[in-house]
Write a structure and sequence with these properties.
By secondary structure, the protein is an alpha+beta fold. It has three domains: about 40 residues; about 30 residues, no CATH class; about 110 residues, Immunoglobulin-like (Sandwich). Helices cover about 20% and strands about 30% of the residues. The strands form three sheets. It has a five-stranded antiparallel sheet, with no helix packed on it. Strands 6-7-10-9 form a four-stranded antiparallel sheet, with no helix packed on it. It has a two-stranded antiparallel ribbon with strand order 1-2. The two termini are about 95 Å apart.
Protein backbone atom coordinates (compact mmCIF):
# COMPACT_ATOMS: atom_id res chain seq x y z
CA UNK A 1 0.00 0.00 0.00
CA UNK A 2 1.33 3.41 -0.94
CA UNK A 3 2.01 6.17 1.56
CA UNK A 4 -0.69 8.30 -0.01
CA UNK A 5 -3.27 5.52 0.40
CA UNK A 6 -2.37 5.17 4.07
CA UNK A 7 -2.77 8.93 4.64
CA UNK A 8 -6.17 8.90 2.91
CA UNK A 9 -7.35 5.97 5.12
CA UNK A 10 -6.21 7.83 8.25
CA UNK A 11 -8.20 10.93 7.27
CA UNK A 12 -11.32 8.87 6.58
CA UNK A 13 -10.97 6.88 9.85
CA UNK A 14 -10.69 10.01 11.99
CA UNK A 15 -13.69 11.60 10.28
CA UNK A 16 -15.82 8.41 10.68
CA UNK A 17 -14.89 8.01 14.36
CA UNK A 18 -15.87 11.58 15.11
CA UNK A 19 -19.25 11.20 13.36
CA UNK A 20 -19.99 7.86 15.09
CA UNK A 21 -19.19 9.17 18.60
CA UNK A 22 -21.34 12.22 18.10
CA UNK A 23 -24.33 10.13 16.86
CA UNK A 24 -24.20 8.02 20.06
CA UNK A 25 -24.48 11.08 22.29
CA UNK A 26 -20.88 11.23 23.32
CA UNK A 27 -19.69 14.46 24.78
CA UNK A 28 -17.87 16.07 21.89
CA UNK A 29 -15.39 18.91 21.83
CA UNK A 30 -16.66 22.35 21.18
CA UNK A 31 -17.53 23.26 17.62
CA UNK A 32 -14.33 25.28 17.35
CA UNK A 33 -12.25 22.42 18.68
CA UNK A 34 -13.96 19.99 16.32
CA UNK A 35 -13.39 22.31 13.41
CA UNK A 36 -9.74 22.61 14.38
CA UNK A 37 -9.42 18.82 14.58
CA UNK A 38 -11.05 18.40 11.17
CA UNK A 39 -8.82 21.05 9.68
CA UNK A 40 -5.77 19.42 11.22
CA UNK A 41 -6.71 16.06 9.74
CA UNK A 42 -7.37 17.57 6.34
CA UNK A 43 -4.09 19.51 6.47
CA UNK A 44 -2.04 16.32 6.64
CA UNK A 45 0.05 16.73 3.48
CA UNK A 46 -0.24 14.34 0.61
CA UNK A 47 2.60 11.86 0.07
CA UNK A 48 5.82 13.37 -1.38
CA UNK A 49 6.68 12.31 -4.94
CA UNK A 50 10.23 10.95 -5.11
CA UNK A 51 11.74 10.94 -8.61
CA UNK A 52 13.55 7.86 -9.93
CA UNK A 53 15.72 9.84 -12.35
CA UNK A 54 17.67 13.09 -12.33
CA UNK A 55 15.91 16.02 -13.95
CA UNK A 56 16.78 19.57 -14.86
CA UNK A 57 13.22 20.79 -14.25
CA UNK A 58 11.68 18.70 -11.43
CA UNK A 59 11.57 20.16 -7.88
CA UNK A 60 10.90 16.75 -6.30
CA UNK A 61 13.46 14.88 -4.23
CA UNK A 62 15.29 12.03 -5.99
CA UNK A 63 16.19 8.52 -4.87
CA UNK A 64 19.55 8.11 -3.15
CA UNK A 65 20.63 5.31 -5.48
CA UNK A 66 19.97 7.54 -8.50
CA UNK A 67 22.26 10.24 -7.08
CA UNK A 68 24.99 7.69 -6.33
CA UNK A 69 24.81 6.21 -9.82
CA UNK A 70 25.23 9.69 -11.32
CA UNK A 71 28.21 10.49 -9.09
CA UNK A 72 29.84 7.17 -9.95
CA UNK A 73 29.95 8.31 -13.57
CA UNK A 74 31.98 11.42 -12.73
CA UNK A 75 35.81 11.68 -12.69
CA UNK A 76 37.01 11.67 -9.09
CA UNK A 77 39.40 14.42 -7.97
CA UNK A 78 41.88 11.75 -6.94
CA UNK A 79 42.08 10.42 -10.51
CA UNK A 80 40.46 7.95 -12.85
CA UNK A 81 40.10 7.02 -16.51
CA UNK A 82 38.55 9.32 -19.10
CA UNK A 83 36.47 7.62 -21.77
CA UNK A 84 36.00 10.75 -23.89
CA UNK A 85 37.54 14.11 -24.74
CA UNK A 86 38.32 16.73 -22.10
CA UNK A 87 37.73 20.25 -23.35
CA UNK A 88 38.38 23.53 -21.62
CA UNK A 89 40.73 26.47 -21.17
CA UNK A 90 43.57 25.23 -18.98
CA UNK A 91 44.80 21.90 -17.65
CA UNK A 92 47.43 22.17 -14.95
CA UNK A 93 49.42 19.40 -13.33
CA UNK A 94 52.84 17.88 -12.81
CA UNK A 95 53.05 15.30 -15.60
CA UNK A 96 51.55 14.81 -19.04
CA UNK A 97 51.91 11.36 -20.60
CA UNK A 98 50.46 9.79 -23.73
CA UNK A 99 50.02 6.06 -24.22
CA UNK A 100 48.53 6.15 -27.72
CA UNK A 101 50.88 8.35 -29.78
CA UNK A 102 50.84 7.90 -33.57
CA UNK A 103 53.38 8.85 -36.22
CA UNK A 104 52.49 12.22 -37.78
CA UNK A 105 53.76 10.94 -41.13
CA UNK A 106 55.15 14.31 -42.22
CA UNK A 107 57.53 17.06 -41.13
CA UNK A 108 55.86 18.96 -38.28
CA UNK A 109 55.19 22.63 -38.84
CA UNK A 110 55.06 23.25 -35.09
CA UNK A 111 56.90 21.67 -32.14
CA UNK A 112 55.60 21.80 -28.55
CA UNK A 113 57.89 23.58 -26.07
CA UNK A 114 57.65 24.61 -22.40
CA UNK A 115 58.31 28.07 -21.03
CA UNK A 116 59.96 28.70 -17.67
CA UNK A 117 56.63 28.27 -15.85
CA UNK A 118 55.77 25.00 -17.56
CA UNK A 119 53.16 26.36 -19.98
CA UNK A 120 53.06 24.62 -23.34
CA UNK A 121 53.69 26.75 -26.44
CA UNK A 122 54.98 25.99 -29.93
CA UNK A 123 57.96 26.97 -32.06
CA UNK A 124 58.54 26.19 -35.72
CA UNK A 125 61.53 23.96 -36.61
CA UNK A 126 63.32 26.98 -38.10
CA UNK A 127 62.72 29.01 -34.93
CA UNK A 128 64.04 26.17 -32.77
CA UNK A 129 67.24 25.95 -34.81
CA UNK A 130 67.70 29.70 -34.37
CA UNK A 131 66.98 29.41 -30.64
CA UNK A 132 69.73 26.79 -30.34
CA UNK A 133 72.23 28.89 -32.25
CA UNK A 134 72.28 26.72 -35.37
CA UNK A 135 73.20 29.12 -38.18
CA UNK A 136 73.16 26.70 -41.08
CA UNK A 137 71.40 23.40 -41.63
CA UNK A 138 70.31 21.01 -44.36
CA UNK A 139 66.90 21.86 -45.77
CA UNK A 140 66.80 19.17 -48.46
CA UNK A 141 68.82 16.11 -49.39
CA UNK A 142 68.36 13.08 -51.58
CA UNK A 143 69.37 11.48 -54.83
CA UNK A 144 68.44 11.96 -58.48
CA UNK A 145 69.83 9.77 -61.23
CA UNK A 146 73.59 9.40 -60.70
CA UNK A 147 73.68 12.28 -58.26
CA UNK A 148 73.43 12.61 -54.50
CA UNK A 149 72.85 16.15 -53.22
CA UNK A 150 72.37 18.42 -50.22
CA UNK A 151 70.91 21.91 -49.98
CA UNK A 152 71.68 24.18 -47.02
CA UNK A 153 69.61 26.93 -45.44
CA UNK A 154 72.20 29.61 -46.33
CA UNK A 155 71.81 28.82 -50.05
CA UNK A 156 74.85 26.56 -50.45
CA UNK A 157 74.39 23.33 -52.39
CA UNK A 158 76.60 20.37 -53.17
CA UNK A 159 76.21 17.24 -55.25
CA UNK A 160 78.41 14.33 -56.24
CA UNK A 161 78.28 11.42 -58.67
CA UNK A 162 80.37 8.78 -60.45
CA UNK A 163 80.64 7.79 -64.10
CA UNK A 164 81.85 4.25 -64.70
CA UNK A 165 84.76 3.69 -67.12
CA UNK A 166 84.94 0.03 -68.12
CA UNK A 167 87.43 -1.42 -70.59
CA UNK A 168 87.82 1.89 -72.41
CA UNK A 169 90.77 2.30 -74.78
CA UNK A 170 93.22 5.11 -74.08
CA UNK A 171 95.13 5.28 -77.35
CA UNK A 172 94.29 8.62 -78.98
CA UNK A 173 97.36 10.88 -78.88
CA UNK A 174 97.25 14.31 -77.26
CA UNK A 175 100.76 15.65 -77.71
CA UNK A 176 102.98 13.15 -75.92
CA UNK A 177 100.01 11.74 -73.93
CA UNK A 178 97.09 9.50 -74.73
CA UNK A 179 93.39 9.92 -74.06
CA UNK A 180 90.17 7.95 -73.97
CA UNK A 181 86.96 8.71 -75.77
CA UNK A 182 84.47 11.23 -74.38
CA UNK A 183 82.94 10.59 -70.95
CA UNK A 184 79.64 12.24 -69.98
CA UNK A 185 77.22 12.18 -67.07
CA UNK A 186 73.62 13.24 -66.54
CA UNK A 187 72.43 16.72 -65.52
CA UNK A 188 72.80 17.99 -61.97
CA UNK A 189 69.77 17.23 -59.75
CA UNK A 190 68.96 20.97 -59.74
CA UNK A 191 70.11 24.13 -61.50
CA UNK A 192 72.75 26.19 -59.72
CA UNK A 193 72.18 29.95 -59.61
CA UNK A 194 75.77 30.49 -60.85
CA UNK A 195 78.45 28.24 -62.29
CA UNK A 196 79.45 25.83 -59.51
CA UNK A 197 82.96 24.90 -58.43
CA UNK A 198 83.44 21.52 -60.13
CA UNK A 199 86.10 18.97 -59.23
CA UNK A 200 86.66 15.75 -61.22
CA UNK A 201 89.12 12.93 -60.54
CA UNK A 202 89.77 9.48 -61.98
CA UNK A 203 89.84 6.58 -59.56
CA UNK A 204 91.05 3.11 -60.53
CA UNK A 205 92.27 -0.07 -58.91
CA UNK A 206 93.68 -1.68 -62.07
CA UNK A 207 97.05 0.07 -62.15
CA UNK A 208 96.16 2.13 -65.23
CA UNK A 209 95.65 5.51 -63.65
CA UNK A 210 95.11 8.83 -65.37
CA UNK A 211 93.93 12.40 -65.13
CA UNK A 212 90.52 13.86 -65.99
CA UNK A 213 90.77 16.40 -68.80
CA UNK A 214 88.13 18.62 -70.34
CA UNK A 215 87.19 17.41 -73.79
CA UNK A 216 86.74 20.97 -74.95
CA UNK A 217 83.02 20.34 -75.42
CA UNK A 218 81.10 22.47 -72.93
CA UNK A 219 77.65 21.56 -71.78
CA UNK A 220 74.76 23.79 -72.82
CA UNK A 221 74.97 25.44 -69.40
CA UNK A 222 77.58 24.79 -66.68
CA UNK A 223 74.81 25.52 -64.19
CA UNK A 224 72.92 22.39 -65.23
CA UNK A 225 75.52 19.81 -66.31
CA UNK A 226 79.28 19.12 -66.13
CA UNK A 227 81.32 19.41 -69.31
CA UNK A 228 82.30 16.35 -71.33
CA UNK A 229 85.71 14.96 -70.26
CA UNK A 230 88.17 12.21 -71.05
CA UNK A 231 90.93 10.45 -69.15
CA UNK A 232 94.52 11.13 -70.22
CA UNK A 233 97.69 9.28 -69.27
CA UNK A 234 101.36 9.31 -70.32
CA UNK A 235 101.26 5.83 -71.81
CA UNK A 236 98.66 4.20 -73.99
CA UNK A 237 96.41 1.41 -72.80
CA UNK A 238 93.93 -0.73 -74.68
CA UNK A 239 91.68 -1.01 -71.63
CA UNK A 240 91.34 1.18 -68.58
CA UNK A 241 88.71 0.68 -65.90
CA UNK A 242 87.67 2.91 -63.01
CA UNK A 243 85.40 5.81 -62.10
CA UNK A 244 85.29 9.50 -62.88
CA UNK A 245 84.27 11.15 -59.62
CA UNK A 246 82.38 14.46 -59.80
CA UNK A 247 81.87 16.95 -56.99
CA UNK A 248 80.11 20.28 -57.55
CA UNK A 249 79.46 23.02 -55.00
CA UNK A 250 77.64 26.30 -55.52
CA UNK A 251 74.41 28.11 -54.71
CA UNK A 252 70.85 26.88 -55.11
CA UNK A 253 69.24 30.20 -54.10
Amino acid sequence: MSVQSQIDRLKNAVSAAYTAAKSKGATMPSAQTAANLAAAVQSIPDAVTVDSALSGTSTNPVQNKVVKAALDGKLDKSGGTLTGNLTGQYLTGTWLQTTGASDLGSTPGKVAVLDGSGWVYYRTPAELLGDMGVKDYIVEQGSSGNWTYRKWSNGDAECWASATVSGMACTTTVGNWYRTGNITISNYPFTFTANPNLQMTFETYSGTGGLVWSAGTSSSSPKTKPATVYVIRPTSSNSITGFVRYYAKGKWK
